[in-house]
Write a structure and sequence with these properties.
Structural class: alpha/beta
Shape: globular
CATH topology: Phenylalanine Hydroxylase
Number of helices: 12
Strand order of the largest sheet: 4-3-6-5
Distance between the termini: 19 Å
CATH class: Mainly Alpha
Number of strands: 6
CATH superfamily: Aromatic amino acid hydroxylase
């Protein structure tokens, strides 16, 4: 997991409160307003139900404690601010303890439509709605628990299952492709792209996902589609490290994107 970012984390004060400027709150307000109709059109019902449970403020960046107060009685999760990007070990450890790591900064106007690294809009608007659902919360915890047992050589393989589901997963609802992933919910441009005919759509398969490389700095050219949500929840009960070994033995698929120059 890359640790390069041009954004600087915001630090909570002695009371645990992060101060956001009026300009930063305005970015949150405009992102919320801009995504409101898009998520209603393109996101799957579990996300929309979770968003309704959270009742996020529309005019300011929420504090992580506000989210924890809602999540804790529902699923036992809480949200904690972290720097923009953290290492795999810390990420897996936090998920295993039902703590969601939220980058504390918010994107600039220059990155309004698409940001390469996670900001607090992505973390809160994108991720926390599904964490109100015990089934999705359990899957995220299972990824963390598997990560704690994994060796360093396994991290990049295991994280693909999180990437292509919780971050960029799709599902079928009444025969229509809908988005589940947080990276889609929080992106004004990638959300409609993901459910269009432009990218490749492949059926959900754990081993195939573990073998599929991705880039974080582009719209995904390939998404995996759950026919039934139970396919995802059943994956939480699998021996994911055994699955990683199978995927490693088979090897990576050829990338579905252009390789970076240099």
């Amino acid at each position: 997991m890359s640790k390069q970012t041009r954004y600087q984390a915001k630090t909570p004060n002695a009371d645990g409160v992060i101060s956001y400027t009026s300009a930063e709150n305005a970015v949150w307000r405009d992102l919320m307003a801009g995504q409101a109709q898009a998520v209603q059109t393109h996101m799957a019902r579990p996300y929309l139900d979770g968003l309704e449970r959270l009742a996020l403020p529309t005019d300011r960046v929420p504090q992580t404690d506000e989210l924890s107060d809602v999540l804790s009685p529902l699923t036992g999760w809480r949200v904690a601010p972290v720097p923009a990007l953290i290492g795999f070990e810390r990420f897996f450890d936090m998920l295993a303890r039902r703590v969601f790591p939220a980058a504390s900064f918010i994107r600039s106007r220059a990155d309004f439509d698409y940001i390469k690294e996670p900001d607090i809009f992505h973390e809160i608007f994108g991720h926390t709605p599904l964490l109100t659902d015990p089934r999705f919360a359990g899957f995220s915890q299972a990824i963390g628990q598997a990560g704690l047992r994994a060796g360093r050589q396994d991290y990049a393989w295991l994280i693909r299952l999180y990437w292509f589901t919780i971050e960029f997963g799709l599902t079928l609802e009444a025969g229509q492709i809908k988005a589940l992933g947080s990276g889609l919910a929080s992106s004004p441009t990638e959300l409609p792209w993901s459910v269009s005919d432009a990218p490749l759509h492949r059926p959900f398969d754990v081993i195939d996902i573990l073998r599929t490389p991705y880039r974080i700095d582009i719209h995904q050219p390939l998404y995996f589609v759950l026919e039934e949500l139970d396919e995802l929840f059943a994956a939480a009960d699998r021996d994911l490290l055994a699955d990683v070994k199978v995927a490693q033995a088979k090897g990576l698929f050829a990338p579905s994107y252009e390789q970076k120059a240099g």
